[in-house]
Protein backbone atom coordinates (compact mmCIF):
# COMPACT_ATOMS: atom_id res chain seq x y z
CA UNK A 1 0.00 0.00 0.00
CA UNK A 2 1.30 3.44 -0.94
CA UNK A 3 0.56 6.79 0.64
CA UNK A 4 1.79 10.36 0.20
CA UNK A 5 2.41 12.28 3.42
CA UNK A 6 2.03 15.95 2.59
CA UNK A 7 3.66 18.15 5.25
CA UNK A 8 2.45 21.74 5.20
CA UNK A 9 1.29 24.72 7.25
CA UNK A 10 -1.46 27.30 6.80
CA UNK A 11 1.06 30.19 6.81
CA UNK A 12 3.34 28.65 4.16
CA UNK A 13 2.95 30.24 0.70
CA UNK A 14 4.49 27.36 -1.28
CA UNK A 15 2.29 24.93 0.67
CA UNK A 16 -0.79 26.87 -0.40
CA UNK A 17 0.35 26.53 -4.02
CA UNK A 18 0.94 22.79 -3.67
CA UNK A 19 -2.36 22.11 -1.89
CA UNK A 20 -4.53 22.06 -5.03
CA UNK A 21 -2.16 19.57 -6.70
CA UNK A 22 -2.32 17.26 -3.70
CA UNK A 23 -6.13 17.59 -3.60
CA UNK A 24 -6.30 16.74 -7.31
CA UNK A 25 -4.12 13.67 -6.82
CA UNK A 26 -6.37 12.56 -3.97
CA UNK A 27 -9.49 12.99 -6.13
CA UNK A 28 -7.80 10.86 -8.80
CA UNK A 29 -7.37 7.99 -6.36
CA UNK A 30 -3.91 8.53 -4.90
CA UNK A 31 -3.82 8.22 -1.13
CA UNK A 32 -2.72 11.57 0.33
CA UNK A 33 -2.52 12.38 4.04
CA UNK A 34 -2.06 16.08 4.80
CA UNK A 35 -0.09 16.82 7.96
CA UNK A 36 -0.15 20.33 9.41
CA UNK A 37 3.25 20.74 11.06
CA UNK A 38 1.85 23.21 13.60
CA UNK A 39 -1.00 21.05 14.86
CA UNK A 40 0.94 17.74 14.62
CA UNK A 41 4.63 18.34 15.45
CA UNK A 42 5.33 14.66 16.23
CA UNK A 43 4.83 13.25 12.73
CA UNK A 44 7.21 15.71 11.02
CA UNK A 45 9.79 14.90 13.69
CA UNK A 46 9.29 11.17 13.12
CA UNK A 47 10.04 11.62 9.39
CA UNK A 48 12.83 14.16 9.95
CA UNK A 49 10.99 16.87 7.99
CA UNK A 50 12.93 20.12 8.24
CA UNK A 51 11.36 22.18 5.43
CA UNK A 52 7.88 22.55 4.07
CA UNK A 53 6.28 21.70 1.82
CA UNK A 54 7.65 18.18 1.91
CA UNK A 55 5.98 15.15 0.38
CA UNK A 56 7.07 11.70 1.56
CA UNK A 57 5.97 8.58 -0.27
CA UNK A 58 5.43 5.56 1.95
CA UNK A 59 5.19 2.04 0.62
CA UNK A 60 4.03 -0.53 3.17
CA UNK A 61 4.84 2.00 5.90
CA UNK A 62 8.43 2.60 4.76
CA UNK A 63 9.70 5.79 3.14
CA UNK A 64 10.65 5.16 -0.49
CA UNK A 65 10.78 8.73 -1.87
CA UNK A 66 10.84 12.34 -0.72
CA UNK A 67 10.36 15.67 -2.45
CA UNK A 68 11.06 18.99 -0.75
CA UNK A 69 9.47 22.09 -2.24
CA UNK A 70 6.89 22.31 -4.98
CA UNK A 71 6.92 19.89 -7.88
CA UNK A 72 4.57 19.34 -10.78
CA UNK A 73 1.64 16.98 -10.59
CA UNK A 74 3.32 14.73 -13.17
CA UNK A 75 6.44 14.55 -10.99
CA UNK A 76 4.42 13.19 -8.06
CA UNK A 77 2.71 10.68 -10.35
CA UNK A 78 6.11 9.53 -11.66
CA UNK A 79 7.42 9.12 -8.11
CA UNK A 80 4.34 7.07 -7.23
CA UNK A 81 4.63 4.84 -10.30
CA UNK A 82 8.38 4.27 -9.99
CA UNK A 83 8.17 3.17 -6.35
Structure description:
It is a single chain. By secondary structure, this protein is an alpha+beta fold. The protein has helices at residues 13-27, 42-46, 73-82, and strands at residues 2-8, 32-36, 54-59, 62-68. The chain has a single domain (2-82), classed as Glutaredoxin (3-Layer(aba) Sandwich), CATH 3.40.30.10. The chain has three helices and four strands. The longest helix is centred in the N-terminal third of the chain and has 15 residues, at 13-27. The mean pLDDT is 97.
Relative helix content: 25-40%
Q: H/E series, N to C?
A: EHEHEEH
Q: What is the CATH C level class, in words?
A: Alpha Beta
**What is the CATH superfamily classification?**
Glutaredoxin
Radius of gyration based on Cα positions: 12 Å
Tell the overall outline: globular
Termini, distance in Å?
Answer: 11 Å
What is the number of helices? 3
How would a crystallographer describe the biggest sheet?
4 strands, mixed
Which range does the strand content fall in?
Answer: 25-35%
Query: Looking across the biggest beta sheet, what order are the strands in?
Result: 2-1-3-4
Structural class: alpha+beta
Number of domains: 1
CATH architecture: 3-Layer(aba) Sandwich
Task: List the quaternary state of the chains.
Answer: single chain
Number of strands: 4
